Amino acid sequence: MAGAAILLAATLVLPLWSTRMEAPQYKGSEALEVHVYAGRVHGDLHEIELLNQYVGVHLPLETPELAAAPWVLGAFLAITLGVQALPAAARRRAALGLSIVMAGVLLGGGALLQYRLYQMGHERTSTIMEGVPDFTPPLLGSKKIANFTAFMSLGAGAWAYLGALALAAWSTRRPPAPDPARVRRQE
Amino acid sequence: MNTQARQYWILGTVVVAGLALGAACQTGGQTAPGAAAPADLASRTYVPVGEWDKYYAFLSGGQSGAVYVYGLPSGRYIRSIPVYEPRAGYGYANVPGTETYEMLAASGPMWGDTHHPILSESGGDYDGKHLWINDKANSRIARIDLRTFETKAIARIPNLQATHGIAVVSPDTSYIVANGEFQAEIPQGRLDTDSYGAVMAFLDPMTLEPRFEVLMPGNCDINDSSKDGRWAFTTIYNLENAVTVEGMIQREEDAIGAVDIHAAEAALERGEFREINGVKVIDPTETTEKVLYVIPVPKNPHGCDVTPDGKYVLGAGKLSPTVTVIDISKIDQVENPRDAIAGQPDVGLGPLHTTFDGRGNAYTSLFVDSQIVKWNIEKAIAGDPTYVIDRVDVHYNVGHTQATLAETMHPTGEYLLALNKLSKDQYLPVGPTMPEAQELIDITGEKMTLLSSFPAEPEPHDAVFMLAEDLSPKVVQTEELTADAVPEDGSRVERVGPDEVHVYMTAIRSKYGLNDFTVKEGDKVTITLTNIETIRDMSHGFAVEGYGINLALDPGQTRKVTFVADKPGTHWYYCTWFCSALHLEMRGRMLVEERG
């Protein structure tokens, strides 16, 4: 569980999910990037907002789930550290519970993000520029939006979360029973 | 067959054979050894879409008062840098009440005649910081900042008429040397045709103020410096001190002048100068240490070029078919200045300028012969009759010629540009006056290969090149916000007096910070505008209808204009740099109220 704690700490500082937007005049180092962290969104938001005035994409930069993310991840981290003090059997039960909740948050978070992506392409603030139909970028993969192609991917923080989840699940296992043959030899 | 018939047969055979031979010679002439097929030549200058040229080429813009920037080897015209002339598209000096206008107007007339671009050096190589350009017509010099490709300083040089040759003093740009070509009164501003003189000015590279000047004989033409910072050389014509063409070509010899910069600095320390117009002027006939060496060369020489290894200075004959090779190390060692001459090879008619490949070869432009001649310097000095290696015809009447990085201590020896004075039939006719022709020559081989030709507005006299990899990383993509920048929420109108209004505005896609502002007829209006874009190439303009105002702003740049709102009514202002899908809508109104 110590490993899981380190990985959970990493989820608080590393990007969880990223988009890279490329267009002929926005390529290489000039491609536009958005990185979603626990509690905040970083990247070329200024330029995206300037371009967005013609497309009117809804940019959900302040959402309850984004604000809650550092608290939820922080709670997981606290639990992971706290259960170290418990006896082995209780620790396994706690790990089981944590794994289930973490998996639930993963699924729920993914679903919420996909919903926000749907909102982005559908709840348009304006449609100054015609010829850009409503769209839904996938959680992972790519999507052509106007003259841009957006590439969506998991950030290092998400991989750390998955690693923490795997470690938590792994630590729910019982220790193996003593090998009878080996016990006999010692007698 | 009778005799007559046989004679006809023989005659016929001879004629056919003769025609065939002639045709063979004709074909042979077209595919001479070493000549490349057009497709091969095209591929050697082709730069694919989206890729960059290997070299920047800076060409002087002559009477456009500008510097042209091309890419080599493609010959693509990339931009011009306005220096001595207003250029509305760049918002340069085109509106009174702007900074660039005030800078140019304070230095002299609103046009210039640029001849010689030179690049800053560190350690004998280009450092990509600054470019200087002369204005012959108004005795000025200007400095361009290569971070932004904008003119940053212009100065009229005191005590001097017609800034002609300019040079960086190698290896670390300790001075900019500027030749005053025309003789006139020193100091100027009075008529006294008996007291003519000319100076070579040694300028501070940044402020362009003279640190000192040296009185020179005759007319100083083209100059260069030694690679160790000690010598400034110039070709000198009209030692007759004449004022007519006929008078200027009387003597059989003119000279190359060599100014010992260290001796001049020592003279300054000893107080051996006169202060004229606030400038320390050294008369080389009155100094303890010898400051000026005068080496005789055939009359009316022109080009003055130091070899990349710093061993020789070459004076091109112009009216003499020779190039005089002077051994720099001997200049202060010999009793008779002629003994410093190492050689005087005959190269062809009308030699004007010489450039180098760094492999011991010189390339001299021949104005009369319309050729570039390649010759080996050491062979010429040794008297080896095979010193001329190759000649290539150029079109036509070549003036300056420059090889890539030939002015540094490490020429790349890759391309050479012939800057031709006449193009005549080379391009589509565009009236009786044709553009000038630049011809690109590959000099990597033993023989030269003429690759391509591209035109330019009159008239690039000279050119300098930089490797793109050395300069492009230093060019900024956006300007840093200055202290007077208008912040994103700082657009406002302030009335600062009964007749004075300050307007502060931002510009960003696709809106100005103010949709409109109101002033009173007769108000003195100062508009401060900041382009708050943060990405490359997102420039905005600001033109005010009917007021003759057009600003151009790089991303991050702040510019100001002051004018009197003397025309009542609605005057739209709009963006002149196409910026976005709503560019046409990017505009606002200046509302000028009539005074009762």
In short:
The complex is a heterodimer of chains A (187) and B (596). With 187 residues, chain A is α+β, with helices and mostly antiparallel strands.
Report on this structure.
- The complex is a heterodimer of chains A (187) and B (596).
- With 187 residues, chain A is α+β, with helices and mostly antiparallel strands.
- Chain A has a single domain, classed as Butyryl-CoA Dehydrogenase, subunit A, domain 3, CATH 1.20.140.
- Chain A contains six helices and five strands, in the order αβββαααββαα.
- Chain A has helices spanning 2-11, 45-55, 64-82, 88-122, 156-170, 180-186, and strands at 17-22, 32-37, 40-43, 141-145, 148-154.
- In chain A, helix 4 runs antiparallel to helix 5.
- Chain A is elongated and about 80 Å long.
- The two termini of chain A are 35 Å apart.
- The mean pLDDT of chain A is 90.
- Helix content of chain B is 11%, strand content 42%.
- Among the domains of chain B are: 46-156 and 459-475, no CATH class; 492-593, Immunoglobulin-like (Sandwich).
- Mean pLDDT of chain B is 94; it is low at 21-33.
- By secondary structure, chain B is mainly beta.
- In chain B, strands 8, 9, 10, 11, 12, 16 and 17 form a seven-stranded mixed β-sheet that branches. In chain B, strands 32, 33, 34, 36 and 39 form a five-stranded mixed β-sheet that branches. A five-stranded mixed β-sheet of chain B has the order 35-41-40-37-38, with no helix packed on it.
- Note the main sheet of chain B: 7 strands, mixed
Mean pLDDT of chain A: 90
End-to-end Cα distance of chain A: 35 Å
Please identify, by name, the CATH architecture of chain A: Up-down Bundle
**Element pattern of chain A in H and E:** HEEEHHHEEHH
Strand order of the largest sheet of chain A: 3-2-1-5-4
Structural class of chain B: mainly beta
Biggest interface in this structure?
A-B, 9 and 10 residues
- Calculate the terminal CA-CA distance of chain B, rounded to whole Å: 117 Å
CATH topology of chain A: Butyryl-CoA Dehydrogenase, subunit A, domain 3
How many whole angstroms does the radius of gyration of chain A measure? Answer: 22 Å
- Categorize the overall geometry of chain B: globular
Low-confidence stretches of chain A: none
How many DSSP helices of chain B? 7
Count the beta strands of chain A.
Answer: 5
C-alpha Rg of chain B, in Å? Answer: 29 Å
Q: What would you call the quaternary organization?
A: heterodimer
Largest sheet data of chain A: 5 strands, antiparallel
